[in-house]
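INFO  loader      accepted 1 record
INFO  loader      residues=297
INFO  predictor   begin
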Amino acid sequence: MKFLKGNSLIPRLAIVLAVVCVTYTGSRTIAADLEGYTEPYRNVAVASPEIGVIESLAVEEGDHVGKGQLLIQMEDSVLRASMAVARAAMDSTGRVSEAEADLQAKRDQLDSYKALIERGNATQRELDRAKEAVLVSESRLQSIREEMHVRKLEFQRAEAQWKLRQITSPLDGVVVSIAKRSGEFVAPTDPVILQVAQLDRLSVVFSVPISQADGLADDQTVSLRVGRDLVVTKGTIEYVSPLTDPQSGSRRVRIRIENSDLALSGGVVCRWDLNHAPSTDPSIRRQATRGPVRSLW
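INFO  predictor   done
INFO  writer      dumping tokens
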């Protein structure tokens, strides 16, 4: 820049000051009151593995259910008929008994020929034919037994398909919502019928600044405040993500809360005060805060 003063060009100085505030600390506490929301430890959408019509519901919303308890009965008349046919075929023993009797007769005949040939009253050819007859009877009996085994497997398949029509709870929990009722059709594109949530444990996920996430470990116990009344409870760290979110400079930390008495609710605010965790990261012992740039004339 050029400014005229008399007959000479004198540059006018522009003094730019950057205000820098420096804080020195040996070990300081970072104020961080993190906020998250409690969630069911597990929330399972219970769906039908096969299409069909809902015959009946064994539960209502709010019911406590145990693992393996019947929740939904799908219409199963055709499968029950198929299973009855398969059971009858599996239980039939007539052909097996007939083949066993025939084999025993052939073996007795072979023994007779052996005795006769020792006395010279039978030929070797007759003995060979008796042996062949035993082999044929043994093969026939084996074939029938294999067929009976296949029939047993067919019955087991029909029974397994029938059991798929009886939908049970995958966990101990509470029925929190019902999407379909008796008489409604369950399609492959929309198979979910109801939801069961595990509430005797809760889960909450926090985004923790990396400077303090480095000091956390699995199975570590922490103090939390839950709900509008900020009920103090203990939690256990289950997982500290090894990945850092580059935008927020934080890591995901999942905490488990034991709730066997169901005193705490899912979906409520949960706070975690990190002031108790001092940071000793050398990178934050000396921090500079750059203020606005000002020009002085």
